[in-house]
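*** Backbone structure tokens ***
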Amino acid sequence: MDNVTHTLFALTLARTPLGRAGRGTTAALVLASNAPDIDIVATWGGAQSYMRWHRGPTHGPLGIVALGLVTASLVWTGLRAFDRNPGPRPPASLPMLAAISTIGVLFHVLMDFPTSYGTRLLSPFDWHWWAVDWMPIIDVYLLVALAAGLLFGGMSDEAKRRNAAIVLVLMAANYGIRAAAHHQALMTAPRLFGPAFPPRCDPSSSDGGAIERWPQPVHAISSDPAKRCLVQLVAVPTFFSPFNWRVIAHLSNGYEVHDVDVLDVRFRRPADASEVMWRTTLRIPNVWTPPVWTAASTTLGRTFLGFARLPAARSLVDPYGTATVRWNDLRFIGTRRSLGPAQNDPFSVVIRLAPDGHVLAEQLTP
């Protein structure tokens, strides 16, 4: 989630019994709820460095504990140095600040996990990404609920605690609605993609809300022109409505993309011959030519494929044998009106290779 949401959630937690542990707990919750994003310092090494480290160890088990302890130490030191006007409440003890800060860091990670961006929950022990695809990175409904709970409803401690409880219930309802809508979006896939919807490559696999994990082995994301089957099915949330989703079918020979409103009345009645939703499907190639395999072995190629969840490869070889390889991550392919990987899409890579395979140029956006 974005840092404004993390901060507002921390202030809401400070109005629960966690905030009654002593002075300094609100500061500890706010700092701890933003601490995992300290990995922004990796941008000093460039976009490739940031992609390699983002939501890595600071979002894993060691990071949760370490950042909790560091945050608690900073707040405790600040209280001893600058708390000149003690109020009726005593300052929180260092062990209490450590416990509360660790909770704040943990909630940051747990709020990142349900987004389609995902997080590397087990790093540095395991660098795979994990997600459940319920939430966009910025959820306007969470922002409104959290801000309203803090701004309205009186200034008494009792009113603040009541508002915090209401906001937490609304948050749970929002997550529940999105989880149900996500499941429904996946269930619409056979009608969205129509008669050409292929069988699964692995008949034992299924979709419907399970935790997603990536990157997959390269052989699983590369194309196989001789075989057309379904590798995986993904439903990505959109920004405004919890009922509008982008359904992406990863096939063995490319991708097919369709936008869906799960409240569409057509999904509440049997399919008929006039139904042509599948005719509006966007098809995106994923062709792994020899230059693509070569680019995948470069440092930038490995970094991007370690980050990208749905990488689509294209390549072009000019008359002189110079190859240009481009990958897009199909999670970030634009809005309904601009569906398709444009030249300036975020999270894309372009690598130019000489005829002998060495890298002539490489570019990562952003």
Remarks:
- The chain is about 35% helix and 15% strand.
- The longest strand covers residues 230-237.
- Residues 157-187 form the longest helix (31 residues).
- Confidence is low (pLDDT under 50) at residues 335-344.
